[in-house]
Amino acid sequence: MTRSRYAPVGVVALCVVLGCWASPSHAAADRDKLLSEPGVYGTFAAFGLTEEWGRQDAPTKIAHLTALKGVVEQHREKIAIDLYLLRGLSDYADILFRIHAAELRDSQKFLTDLHASPIGRYLKKAGILNGMSKKANYVPGFPDQMRADLKAPSEPGASPYAIVIPIRKSAEWWALDQEKRAAMMKEHTEAALPYHKTVKRKLYHSSGLDDLDFITYFETSKLEDFHGLILSLEKVKEFQYTRRFGHPTLLGTMKSLDEIIETLAQ
User: Any idea which residues carry the catalytic annotation?
Assistant: First the structure.
């Protein structure tokens, strides 16, 4: 059969997934709380799609994507799930899930259910990073003006690009006393402040939870500003204590679940 014979079926079935399909009723997790409070676990799970997925016909893809949507919506009762399209911008994966949970086992349950779903056989794990949010260690000791500048709101509007960079510090960094590390982090913050309004940042602590120390997450609509931010941070003293920066660096675009489904159905 030719691809065109499946097109009408695909269009109708995709409507079922994106519009007519009714998910079970679940109370959503408190997303704002999970994304803002300390002590919340953050998991970044990147997947590629197998070559076998590309050989499936449209009705099969739609059936599997319907199950994918069901898994995501079911678990939003306990966790916050964000999705990103990496395809075309990353060698490592096609899609990325960013998961926030009060209990790490809730993230684990979502990922095991995802693998057990019909689409699971077509997902190739590209990498999973685990961390947790904590209260700022150094900001309370910064000058009043710097702390005020850090509270300035970001520029309004959408931030379509997301970047994830894992970081591991050297043993020498952790051997420094708190005062020396605080002084270097003050310099780090001064270098980053010019980009504070156009590049949103969130830090996850990973020591003991993964083979790294931090996961840095960025959102921006201006990749040139993000590029300038990284160049500025590479010049400060604190960067000399960095053993791993990236490897991998994940670059993608923020998408809704329906937009991800529409792309994967192609």
Answer: 201
Q: Same domain for 26 and 89?
A: yes
Q: Which domain does 223 fall in, by range?
A: 139-251
Task: Judge if 121 and 162 occupy the same domain.
Answer: no
Task: Give the pLDDT of residue 122.
Answer: 97
How far does CA 73 lie from the centroid of its chain?
Answer: 18
Is pLDDT above 50 for 236? yes
DSSP string, 142-174: S-HHHHHHHTSPPPSS---EEEEEEEEE-HHHH
Radius of gyration for the chain, computed over Cα atoms and rounded to the nearest angstrom: 20
pLDDT at 25: 46
Please check whether residue 134 lies inside any domain of the structure. Answer: no
Q: Which two tokens stand for residue 174?
A: 């952790």
**190/104 Cα distance (integer angstroms):** 34
How far is the C-alpha of 23 from the C-alpha of 31, rounded, in Å? 19
pLDDT at 14 over 80: no
Q: How far apart are CA 126 and CA 156, in angstroms?
A: 33
Beta-carbon contacts of 186 under 8 Å, excluding residues fewer than 6 positions away, are: 138, 141, 142, 146
Q: Using CA atoms, how far apart are residues 115 and 160, in angstroms rounded to an integer?
A: 27
- Structural domain includes residue 102: yes
Alpha carbon distance 31, 190 (integer Å): 30
CA distances from 156 to 33, 149, 153, 197, 222 (A): 21, 17, 8, 9, 12
Question: Of residues 92 and 186, which shows the higher confidence score?
Answer: 186
Cα gap 99→80, rounded to integer Å? 6
